[in-house]
Amino acid sequence: MSHENLIAKLHPLERQVLPALKDASQLSEIVKITKMQEIEIIRALQWLENKDVLKIITEKKRLVSLDKNGKQYKEHGLPEKIFLSVLNDEFKGINVITKKSKLSREEVNACIGLLKRKQAIDVTKGEQWLEVKITEAGKKVLQEESLEEIFLKQELPQEEKNLDQKILNELKKRKGFLKVDEIKLLSIELSELGKELASADLGEEVINRLTPGMLKTGSWKDKNFRAYDVEINVPEKSGGRRHPYNESLNIIRNAFLEMGFQEMEGPWIETSFWNMDAMWIPQDHPAREVQDTFYLDKEGKLPEDTTLIENVKQAHENGLNTGSTGHTKEWNPEVAKQLLLRTHSTATTFRTFHDKKLNHNCKYFYIANNFRNEAVDATHLAEFGQAEGFIMGDNLTLADLMGFIKEFYAKLGITKIRFKPTFNPYTEPSMEAHYYNEKLGKWYALINSGIFRPEALAPFGITKSVIAWGMGSSRIAAILSGRKKLKDLVGPEVPFEWIRKHQRIKI
Description:
- It is built from 22 helices and 16 strands.
- It has helices at residues 3-8, 12-17, 27-34, 38-50, 68-76, 79-85, 94-101, 105-117, 136-143, 147-152, 165-172, 192-199, 212-217, 244-258, 272-275, 306-318, 333-336, 346-355, 398-411, 454-457, 473-481, 496-501; strands at residues 54-66, 92-93, 121-125, 130-134, 158-159, 178-190, 262-263, 269-271, 295-299, 338-341, 362-371, 383-393, 417-424, 427-437, 442-452, 465-471.
């Protein structure tokens, strides 16, 4: 396209901005020269970039400035220096220090903690309150200029990366001392075409639109209209789509439905009764510890079915006529009332046993979110997805369970699987299935499974065999989506560009 044709098709905003680009490359400079609004300039720059006239360069910067308390401390001094200045070699009561220093009680408490760590003060407990006196080390602290005071002498705001990171991290701990703002700086780089156009004569002003007034008066006949550009490059736009994680869950759900399963539902917040006790997990089991479980500070309610409660109690204490001795410990209903974020969706399985009065051949599944207080790594998050399920029937065996697992995962294209025995309090025998992750080059646990113990089933009046499992739906989703780590699939670190461009999952 010739320069003349391109110029004829320029929008009025582009015509205003172009001459300024000869002498300016920063957005602030362009604003100053053109007197235009930033939004107008940015729009014009985007159009020009689409015409290969220029390239827009966006740079992110983190600027550090003083917050409310920081400004106050710069003017009046650091609170710890003010605190020390009212002390002497004799012990003073904390109320006296607070009054003389004119510091808030919160600031005084913070000063005590800080100065004790520096051994700048001695603190003793008086008859009514704490008493404090300055030490020799404290006198030295009072006389010397601290790194924080040196920091406050700097001109702010400044870019975060240019500041002393050690001091910066310490000051960030102080409430209301610093604030960090992330800003975007926009600059432009002209192409060879852009350099020529910026210096070119753009001709007389053009009209961008035909108005009803022009038509009525006929004034349009004397106007110079902007040429219509049918060849301009159109920026690529991405339409809406399902998140690959959500897409993966639908694939898992459809696999269960194709195999004749019914879907069940349950709450995220459970009582220990449904999450632990109903499935015969001992009340002193390590899985109940706070390092594994997120407990709530409120108490829940036991089921209204008193027969079920009594049956669960007997199963724990003596095995409930199953031939088992149970846990031989007294079952405490108060422990069972504890509220928690469910640690596994097996709680929903036992709710389904009770609510639907099951004791016949059937198959159920549930895809759910669960929560455990554990370390985050490539295959673990504090919140994780689980595909729970069970098959109830006559004389089901471990071979039936293994056959189901192989058939299910084959539907998802996962065939490299191996089994190993494990232990669960509520299944016997119990088994894990592992898959080989080609990208990570390791075997990872994919499913925990087993046959429910009679002690777990008897309270619900179930005499059938029940094979059950809990598989990591999040891990399956990561496999199907081609992600190495769960945090690359869900959470704030997942790039939107990957979601937009991710190909539809095909099995």
